[in-house]
């Protein structure tokens, strides 16, 4: 059974629309003399099985309403930026956009998780031309966006690899090394940001 019900066909269209809007924000920044917003973008529609498992894990009935209204990450986008300032610049532009509203945000850059994870998470309420699960057109769909630097993204990939590999030896030691690595990368991100500001301080 398709957990997204009659909205299933809309989700890839919404993903592409939001990706295009973020690309347009970056193009407008470049056209006005600012650096591009990001290094690369990736996106996905959460697979039917994964969303069903998530609903069950959270104690929700496996229905389109649970998948689209309670979980809120059926459509997910990751924005990978060169510098920390680019992350916050992108967030400010999304905050000002007329096609979406930020309904939830968590700043794991300023407040890193205990294991060292850093990223900025947003949930957008995006207005779309597609009918939503409540029968409204224009429809409202939630989109999860994660914004991070290249260094944060590399670290998160490594941590994800460790989390899902269950036969590693000495996980405590690797966890400590990962935490130390996260702190070093965070210091590096700040240092690179400072150098960039020094280069452009007379612009």
From TrEMBL:
This is GTP pyrophosphokinase family protein. PANTHER family: GTP PYROPHOSPHOKINASE YJBM, GTP PYROPHOSPHOKINASE YWAC. InterPro entries: GTP_Pyrophosphokinase (IPR052366), NT_sf (IPR043519), RelA_SpoT (IPR007685). Pfam families: RelA_SpoT. CDD domains: NT_Rel-Spo_like. It comes from the Bacteria. Signal peptide: none annotated. Pathway: Purine metabolism; ppGpp biosynthesis; ppGpp from GTP: step 1/2. It comes from Limosilactobacillus allomucosae. One of its GO terms (biological process) is guanosine tetraphosphate metabolic process. Residues 43-170 form the RelA/SpoT domain.
């Amino acid at each position: 059974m398709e957990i997204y019900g009659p909205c299933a066909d809309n989700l890839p269209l919404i993903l592409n629309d939001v990706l295009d809007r973020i690309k347009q924000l970056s193009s407008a920044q470049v056209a006005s003399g600012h650096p591009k917003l990001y290094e690369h973008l990736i996106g996905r529609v959460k697979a039917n099985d994964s969303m069903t498992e998530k609903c069950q894990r959270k104690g929700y009935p496996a229905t389109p309403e649970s998948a689209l209204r309670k979980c809120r990450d059926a459509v997910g986008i990751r924005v990978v930026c060169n510098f920390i300032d680019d992350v916050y610049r992108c967030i400010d532009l999304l905050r000002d956009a007329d096609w979406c509203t930020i309904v939830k945000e968590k700043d794991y850059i300023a407040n890193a998780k205990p294991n060292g994870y850093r990223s900025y998470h947003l949930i957008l309420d995006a207005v779309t031309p597609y009918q939503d699960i409540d029968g409204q057109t224009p429809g409202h769909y939630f989109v999860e966006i994660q914004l991070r630097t290249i260094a944060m993204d590399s670290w998160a990939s490594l941590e994800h690899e460790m989390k899902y590999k269950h036969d590693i030896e000495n996980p405590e030691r690797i966890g400590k090394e990962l935490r130390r690595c996260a702190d070093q990368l965070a210091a590096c991100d700040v240092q690179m940001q400072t150098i960039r500001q020094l280069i452009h301080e007379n612009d």
